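Re: weekly structure request thread

Next one in the queue (136 aa):
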Amino acid sequence: MFKNYFKTACCNILKNKTVTVINILGLTLGITACLIIYLDTKFELTYDDFHPGKEWIYRAVSVLQESSGDKNYKPTVPKPMAAVIKTGFTGVEKVAQFHIYYAKVLIAGNNNNAKRFDAPNKDDDEQSDIIISDPE
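Done, posted below.
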């Protein structure tokens, strides 16, 4: 009986090639979209999962509103904000600040060949490779 069903399915596939290709492409696209959504969601939900006490870690951001009404969320806050958070909020154990360091570096190499690393422009979207943080 299963052999009969298989023969019927093969005959229908060979007879309706266009419909078969459309169905297979649609099924492939649907499965691919589901896998991509699953992987993206899994990445977002487990991003900082390795930190002990991850449910107690927060990041402060600034909301900058432009004259056009658009809001930009930037990962920057004023420098005195750490001291205010530490003294002004109960339950805060530690506060860490990160500062992007834009530096020009000149490293002496072999045979008096110096290698120069120029600092990225602060106005560009390119980030510096050097970040300085508080000692705690």
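DSSP finds three helices and six strands in the chain. The radius of gyration is 28 Å.
Next request, please.
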